[in-house]
Amino acid sequence: TPHILGANLVSHKQVRIASTQIFGIGPQKAIEVCDQLGPSGNIKVNKSTNYQFDQIIKIMSQNHLVDSESKKSIRTEIKRLISISCYRGFRHNAGLPLRGQRTHTNAKTCRKLRRVSIKKRG
Q: Are 43 and 18 in contact (CB under 8 A)?
């Protein structure tokens, strides 16, 4: 299985479907990339050549934020929200849902992800 931009692509799937495993590439962007490649968009991953993979990487890295770049931009956006002290920044900092979801019974996963140790003074 080829390793492209931080993701292992499934070899028996089509390139446009398998490329959605890359962080920052959804179904629509995958279709756009395959349209730019030409007729080789529907080819399966195990039948495609190294040259085609190089073309895919080139198109994705030029036109889209992919993998570590995308994660970095998300991190900086969250830091910005926290620094300007807006509501979403407070919710990010507290590890609570930001988009109006209820917290009385649900929101267990976002509280689980936090796991921040609080240092005691004294």
A: no
Q: How far is CA 83 from the centre of its chain?
A: 23
- Predicted TM-score (pTM) above 0.90: no
Instruction: Please report which residue ranges of 19-107 form alpha helices under DSSP H.
Output: 27-37, 50-63, 68-83, 87-94
Measured CA to CA, the distance from residue 102 to residue 5 in angstroms comes to: 36
CA distance 30 to 56: 10
Distance CA 30, CA 47 (A): 18
pLDDT in tens, 18-37: 888 888 888 998 888 888 87
> Which among 22, 18, 26, 30 has a CA at the least distance from the CA of 5?
22
As given in the structure block, the two tokens for residue 63 are: 């036109």
Q: How far apart are CA 120 and CA 122, in angstroms?
A: 7
Distance in angstroms (rounded) separating the CA atoms of residues 39 and 49: 14
